[in-house]
Design a protein that fits this description.
The chain is α/β, with parallel strands linked by helices. Helix 1 (11-22) links the parallel strand 1 and strand 2 (26-31). It is built from six helices and 14 strands. Strands 1, 2, 3, 4, 5, 6, 7, 8, 9, 10, 11, 12, 13 and 14 form a 14-stranded mixed beta sheet that branches. The radius of gyration is 19 Å and the shape is globular. The chain has helices at 11-22, 55-73, 134-147, 175-178, 236-249, 290-305, and strands at 3-7, 26-31, 86-95, 112-113, 123-132, 151-154, 166-169, 185-195, 202-205, 210-214, 218-222, 226-227, 258-277, 280-286.
């Protein structure tokens, strides 16, 4: 059993902590932002490998996460945890032009070409994917950390902490400072939350990016994709544009009441960094797919921890 310090309490830090605790380690998380204050809390969040590389590792990590989320979403009598806020949901990704199968195709059990498309689209894929209601899910993960004997402490670090047998760096964009890694950059994403209008399937148009993700009490409508932009203040013009684009996919959104606006900064890197360097395991740079990759990368972190 090692004493492990996990830096970061977003979806990556919490999931790694759960895996490490379940492997029998003692784990303490330190983080500047607590789970509901992180970028992870802003994620839509749909399982979809977006803005994360390299393709082979991302496909393998995504596949692992898909099956873990599928198990979490199962009914209690089948070992699932409905209180975690994870649902398996069908939806469609649409395209203006004919497509070949996506590179991440091996990560999903099935993918069907869609013929019932909104106006102006010529191709699409329908598939079932996990939809993760992040505020509920992050609280569930944090409770799981506590139940397994882990701790979470708020602390703004200027460097990776000394003293533990092993440090797991899950600081996302914070790795610019903590990992002295200038290749991690923010890619700003804005979302609009609107009231639920009875929507039971998700929609995605990668050109935009435009997505509509229904949750239990609201709908997350996105988005934007602005590289190198640090502002977390929502832009009213962007919100109007997001709703205009999304209404092409789901016309009912035109009359839906707007509840709130949010912005998150995706930690994008040319490739996800997951490697052990001495007593530090780096696990950051998951871009637009941190939720999608979380269980896959956490499994690899636990095996690197030994
Ligand atoms: C609008 C939007 C929509 C998204 N939708 C999806 C989606 O549908 N599906 C999906 O898979 N992904 C989605 N993402 C991407 C996803 O949110 C990120 O990939 C993910 O949140 C990254 O998780 P993380 O734990 O690495 O980082 P974060 O959630 O940012 O957590 C980083 C942690 O490190 C801590 N930290 C940083 N610096 C320091 C420091 N100096 N000292 C102490 N602690 C520090 C922070 O306080 C925080 O606790 C979306 C992102 C946005 C913005």
């Amino acid at each position: 059993m090692s004493r492990i310090c996990v830096v970061g309490a977003g979806v990556i830090g919490l999931t790694c902590a759960v895996q490490l605790l379940e492997a029998g380690h003692r784990v303490d998380i330190v983080a500047r932002d607590l789970p509901l204050e992180t970028t992870s809390a802003v994620a839509a969040a749909i399982w979809y490998p977006y803005r994360a590389l390299p393709q082979d590792r991302v496909t393998a990590w995504s596949k692992t996460s898909y099956s873990v989320f599928d198990a979490i979403a199962a009914p209690v009598e089948y070992g699932g945890s409905p209180e975690a806020g994870v649902r398996m949901m069908a939806g469609t990704e649409v395209f203006a032009r004919r497509q070949t199968e996506p590179w991440w195709r091996p990560a999903v059990p099935s993918l069907d070409r869609e013929t019932a498309l909104p106006a102006d689209y010529t191709d699409g894929w329908t598939f079932v994917t996990p939809v993760i209601e992040m505020p509920v899910y992050l609280a569930w993960l944090a409770a799981r950390v506590a139940d397994l004997g882990g701790t979470i402490t708020r602390m703004n670090l200027r460097a990776l902490p000394p003293g533990a047998d092993l440090v797991v760096n899950c600081s996302g964009l914070g790795s610019r400072l903590l990992g002295t890694d200038r290749t991690v950059v923010p890619v700003r994403g804005q979302v609009v939350y609107v009231e639920q209008v009875g929507l039971e399937r998700w929609w995605l148009d990668g050109a935009g990016p435009t997505y509509v993700v229904p949750r239990s009490k609201d709908i997350v409508v996105g988005g934007t994709d602005q590289e190198g932009e640090w502002s977390r203040t929502p832009s009213p013009e962007a919100a109007v544009d997001i709703l205009r684009r999304a209404s092409r996919l789901v016309p009912e959104l035109r009359n839906a009441r707007i509840l709130r606006h949010k912005v998150g900064l995706r930690p994008v890197r040319p490739a996800v960094r997951l490697e052990r360097v001495g007593d530090v395991i780096h696990c950051y740079g998951h871009g637009g797919a941190g939720v999608t990759l979380s269980w896959g990368v956490a499994e690899e972190v636990a095996s690197l921890a030994g």
